């Protein structure tokens, strides 16, 4: 059976400094306020080993927001000090499945096919949308017109609107 049958999975993606961790904090708080056991996985996109200050910065923010389980993957290492050549998102989700969370929120891993919330700062980031699949919604820093879209677009300031939409999608 597929992992999706056991728990909800949602990715938050965008370019560096687009607000992924801040959005993750908001979604974690919403999920935990509903009583959902929430786990997070962060992809450290730099091709260097994990440094303690990098690992702690975002994973502590996830934990402080209410995540019961956090991991940072990058440079062949997992925050749990387990070394491996690479940690695919599929491997991480299988690992998390043993802890039976209600929700797994993933920061990064753009190329994976799980449902995604995409953050874009402005028109210069729109090209990212062409490279992604399974987009649930887009959150923009500045108004952006998109010709063809099959998902809602929210402004970063309209957090109650997009958080309600994200929670509704996770509840489906």
TrEMBL record:
It holds the Pfam family MobB. It comes from the Bacteria. Residues 9-141 form the Molybdopterin-guanine dinucleotide biosynthesis protein B (MobB) domain. GO terms for biological process: Mo-molybdopterin cofactor biosynthetic process. SUPFAM superfamilies: P-loop containing nucleoside triphosphate hydrolases. Transmembrane segments: none annotated. One of its GO terms (molecular function) is GTP binding. Signal peptide: none annotated. PANTHER family: MOLYBDOPTERIN-GUANINE DINUCLEOTIDE BIOSYNTHESIS ADAPTER PROTEIN, MOLYBDOPTERIN-GUANINE DINUCLEOTIDE BIOSYNTHESIS ADAPTER PROTEIN-RELATED. This is Molybdopterin-guanine dinucleotide biosynthesis adapter protein. It comes from Halalkalibacter krulwichiae. The lineage of its organism: Bacteria, Bacillati, Bacillota, Bacilli, Bacillales.
């Amino acid at each position: 059976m597929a992992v999706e049958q056991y728990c909800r999975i949602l990715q938050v993606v965008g370019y560096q400094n687009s607000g992924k961790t801040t959005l993750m904090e908001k979604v974690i708080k919403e999920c935990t306020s509903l009583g959902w056991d929430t786990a997070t996985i962060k992809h450290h996109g730099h091709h260097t080993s994990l440094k303690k200050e990098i690992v702690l910065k975002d994973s502590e923010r996830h934990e402080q927001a209410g995540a019961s389980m956090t991991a940072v993957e990058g440079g062949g290492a997992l925050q749990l000090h387990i070394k491996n050549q690479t940690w695919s998102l599929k491997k991480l989700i299988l690992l998390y499945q043993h802890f039976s969370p209600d929700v797994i929120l993933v920061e990064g891993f753009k190329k994976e096919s799980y449902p995604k919330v995409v953050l874009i700062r402005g028109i210069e980031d729109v090209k990212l949308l062409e490279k992604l699949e399974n987009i649930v919604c887009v959150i923009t820093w500045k108004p952006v017109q998109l010709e063809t879209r099959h998902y809602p677009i929210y402004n970063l300031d309209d957090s109650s609107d997009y958080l309600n939409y994200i929670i509704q999608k996770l509840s489906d």
